[in-house]
Amino acid sequence: MFDPSFQTIWGGNLTAVFCDTGWEHPDTYKHVNDVCLQMGVRLITLKSKYDFVSLAVHKKRFPSTNARFCTSELKMKPMIDYVLSLKESCIIIQGIRAGESTARAAMEEECMYFKSYFQPNKKGRTENYRSKDVKEWCSQFDASVLRPIFKWSAQQVIDCILDAGQKPNPLYYRGFSRVGCFPCIMCRHKEIELIAKNRTEMKKILIICVLFALIAGCASPRNSVENHPAKNSPQPDALPDNKENRFTKQFQEADSMFNEKYRLNE
Question: Which residues form the Phosphoadenosine phosphosulphate reductase domain (predicted)?
Answer without folding.
Answer: 14-185
